[in-house]
Amino acid sequence: MKLLRLLAGVAISVVLFASCNSAKKSSQDTASGRKKDPVAADAALKIGIMLDKLATDLVSATTGKADIFRTGEGINITFQPDFYFESSSEQLTPDAKNLLDQISGVLNRYPYTELFIEGHADSSGNQLKNKKLSENRAKSVALYLKGKGVLAERLAIAGYGATRPLASNETPEGRRKNRRVLVKIRANEKKFLASRIQVASK
């Protein structure tokens, strides 16, 4: 338990460090030497703060069992099939369901975000089957999250098979990394900013 807390603490530190660098960069002048529009800059800052808090909450909820990375566009969560799915199947494992319960609870507190769920495979075996399996695994994650209250309008899926590898398929470790489900979380800027206006007007 102490080790998991330490890992979560390290991950949060990394997230916060990346956030600080992102905020610093956004505050600088554009390449043309002109400062950004102050309204747009303020909106970007508010969205960045929201995503930073979401990333921190996700790290705490997953306790090191999922790879969470804060990007310039949002947050990426990588799920490895060895943990999340039964062998050669789109069926979620009990451990995966427990973790997705925690993730969905966090996501429901941040309704102004959208999720694009990608399934990926390695290059071994029949590629048509691999592509279908990758799509079905993405669909399984989406359906489970939907069942836990994440609105369907926030969810989109795609199965890419082996077309977008992270590592070489020549080694077992590379193939393991390529078999994954990637959840990309992005802010719905229009809805988020509209909600902020409504709160400010009350």
TrEMBL record:
It is found in: Cell outer membrane. The keyword Signal applies. Residues 1-18 form the signal peptide. Its main location: membrane. The keyword Nucleotide-binding does not apply. Keywords: Cell outer membrane, Membrane, Signal. It holds the Pfam family OmpA. CDD domains: OmpA_C-like (cd07185). This is OmpA family protein.
